[in-house]
Amino acid sequence: MSQTLKYRPEVDGLRAVAVLAVMLFHAKIPGFPGGFVGVDVFFVISGYLITGILLRELDSDSFSIVAFYERRVRRILPALFLVLLACIPLGWFLMSPYDFQRLGQGMMAVIAFVSNILFWRTTDYFADTADNPLLHTWSLGVEEQFYIFFPLFLWCVWRYARGWLAWAMVLAAAVSLAISAWWVQSGWVVPAFYLIPTRAFELLLGALLAGAALRGRLPDPGEKISGALAWAGLGAIVWAVAMFSKDTPFPGWHALAPAAGAALVLAFVRADSVLGRLLSWRAMVGVGLISYSAYLWHQPVFAFSHLAGWKPGLAASLGLIAASLLLAWLSWRYVEHPFRNRARMSRRAVFGWAGVVSAGLLGCGAWLVATGGVASRYTAEELQWWRYADVDLQSDYVTRRFQAHAGAFTPDAKRKVLLMGDSYAQDFANMAHEAGAWHDAQVRTVYVPAICQMVDVEEDVSEHIAPIDRPVCADAPSVRSSMSLIGQADIVVLAASWKEWSARLLPRTISHMGLRADQRLFVIGPKHYPPVDIRKLLARGDIGRAARRVRVPEGVSKVNRLLAMSLPPDVFVDQIHIVCGPDEQCPAVTGRDKLISYDGGHLTRAGAAYIGKKLFAESALADVR
User: Fold this and answer.
1) DSSP per residue over 49-90, as a string?
2) pLDDT over 60 at 1, yes or no
3) Distance (Å) of CA 291 to CA 13, 189, 209, 440
4) pLDDT score, position 435
5) Residue 357 reports pLDDT greater than 70
6) Can you give the pLDDT at residue 331?
7) Which pLDDT value is given to residue 129?
8) In DSSP terms, which residues pair with 418 in a beta bridge?
9) Is 573 in contact with 620 (CB distance < 8 Å)?
């Protein structure tokens, strides 16, 4: 085995491509909807570089698990600790108690390298990037979980079945890829995105490449073909960055584009080629050298800017990227670089320092969790308003009643009411309850995810559903699968965040429901309320809050008009007209200064009572309450 994998500046250039793609994606710069695949490129590079080191040590009989983890501590922890420490004072001033408490949970998970598991359980990566300064650390969790087991795996196979090492890695990678594809195709996209079983194949791809390179088994097809393969690899990465989006089923088979692309570049790029010189350009190498710190800093920079109420345009977003790179250079120069110098700090000092700081950050995170994000900073009145920012608390109210009424009707019910739809139907269940309606009826519910919409027509409507959501919708409840319940109900209510396409098809869907003349049908129109910034609402005072209005967006208004034109007036319930008036200017608070919606779309308890009483008094619902 060759004992060296010499430094390759083009690898740092590839790192620069990866980190810039991620930063441009998180900054929401147009043209980079798939920039999140930069993480996949990082995984391949990491597997390539670290496996190269481990195999050289195994071959020279100098492998030490302690030395390996010392290198990981020196490489990973100093800059990570600095970023975590910087988040604490920023969170104190800019975060709600709920978000500050969540920051504490995130800090504890990051220190334990399980943040990917925490975010799998609590957070949609593509829906929740704006306000979470630690969301990007999921990838550190994946890497460190991989490197807990991978060195031991290498050592065992090397010692007892050395000739089968490559095949063992191929098998492990194939199993990981198969699991990834299976989970994505089954609709388990969130765990597939975050967890190690579905991501390991990318690190193993880099590991296989390192093994082949060290054994001199990489093919050499000649200068022209090597150049074409390297450019094809970069093209695959660029194609994924430009063409993928949050609607792409990912990782699964789609992750092969950036991962295989990175492997092709690493395997075939030549230092003296055009691509090699481009990736070895001093600016690219410079960004690559600070890429780890840049990755750590950019998400907190974007998140805290958003939490401060700033909504940057294109130029300002590019400025935030530049600021992240500056912080990264400072971090690399004065934190990362010194801690890698073994002459300045011994192994024992490194482990001791890492243990002390880790314990301190764990304690700080636990304190934030235990104190509810240091809720004592606020008055009782302020806390009452800040509770609206506790998404878990508010969403539990939205969903709990609806879920409790799922199931079949019983034959002895005097009046049967069926509520169907997404989270807006959950809101409507709360409206009816808070308004005191249907207390003598048996209410049953069917949840139809918003991504699927309530449609029952002959033609295929899958073109309207994102590919990533189609497996979920194939198994989700629908109008067709609920025909038995529909036939038993005296009153059927359809409530949803209607899309224009589903609203146009709704009359046909209703006709396929086969309702009898003695059944009543109600379709609840969409709603929209002011976006919530608790800090600004508190600053407005009760008079300012009462005057706060927001116009319904044209897209929502268009759907509402479409429903009003296509449905009879005794069927359609136009809550925008009833609550917001003919000018469609919607209030933020009730007449008693209580917040109506905690996120602009879903209702608080006070909002459900306020709107529910209006709908059951001023619409056709008054006839059946």
Assistant:
1) HHHHHHHHHHHTT---HHHHHHHHHHHHHHHHHHHHHHHHHH
2) no
3) 10, 27, 22, 63
4) 95
5) yes
6) 95
7) 62
8) 444, 492
9) yes
Q: Is 41 exposed, middle or buried (0-12, 13-18, 19+ CB in 10 A)?
A: buried
Q: Per DSSP, what are the bridge partners of residue 442? A: 416
- What are 223-275's pLDDT values in tens digits? 899 999 999 999 999 999 999 999 999 999 999 999 999 999 999 999 889 99
Q: What's the number of CA atoms in the CB half-sphere (13 Å) around residue 229? A: 18
The Cα–Cα gap between 586 and 525 comes to 14
Distances in whole angstroms, Cα of residue 17 to Cα of each of 13, 76, 280: 6, 20, 12
Closest CA to 489 of 431, 395, 410, 564: 410
pLDDT tens figures, 8-32: 899 999 999 999 999 999 999 999 9
Cβ–Cβ < 8 Å for 23, 324: yes
How many angstroms from the chain centroid is the CA of residue 195?
A: 13
Q: Which long-range contacts (CB under 8 A, 24 or more apart) does 351-359 make?
A: 351/70, 351/73, 354/73, 354/77, 357/77, 357/81, 358/77, 358/81, 358/111
Per-residue confidence at 146, pLDDT binned at 50, 70, 90?
A: very high
3-state secondary structure of 185: helix
Q: Supply the DSSP symbol for 338.
A: H
378-388 in b/e burial notation, b at 16+ Cβ within 10 A? beeeeeebbbb
Q: Report the first-to-last Cα separation within the chain, whole angstroms.
A: 81
Name residue 443's beta-bridge partners: 417
Edge-to-edge order in the sheet of strand 572-573:
442-447, 416-421, 491-495, 520-524, 572-573
DSSP letter, residue 481:
G
Q: For residues 195 and 595, what is the distance between their CA atoms, to the nearest angstrom?
A: 37
